Amino acid sequence: SIAILLYLARKFKTPDHWYPSDLQKRARVDEYLSWQHTGIRGKGGKLFLTKVLLPLVTGQPLPPEKLEGVTEELNVVLKQFEEKFLQDKPFIAGSEISLADLVALVELMQPVAAGYDLFEERPKLAEWRRRVEEAVGKQLFQEAHEGIFNMKNL
Predict the structure, then answer these.
(1) How do residues 61-102 score in pLDDT, each as one tens digit?
(2) Where is the GST C-terminal domain (predicted)?
(3) I need a surface site. Which of 52, 92, 106, 120 has the fewest CB within 10 A?
(4) Domains, the chain, ordered by start
């Protein structure tokens, strides 16, 4: 949860870029972390649930028109994310990676795991993903997402 991430960042005195002491940068992180519940998490999670988990439970695929609506909702928040949070910066809070970037990318990987490559036609988003992956390490990033990518193989 977000509360646990913030607790851990404070308790273990992580490097400043994760949860910046600079008030303006921290405000950007906090702003994203507050928005993401109904933004990226809400819409990305919904796509994953409706495309992967619901058919798994019911044994029935989702009607295409329902999936189209869920995908469009996600596209709206992706545009908001790019325009409001990424803007023209390398990361959400500026020039360094933060908890906001980690949380955002983890949530975006759910739709990707469901087969929706949301980075394909969004070069700004794809470049940001590349930067986040490089910052945490590609191998660690892949290990962290193994479970979600194996869900569709159930």
Answers:
(1) 888 898 899 999 999 999 999 999 999 999 999 999 999 999
(2) 22-154
(3) 120
(4) 29-150 (1.20.1050.10)
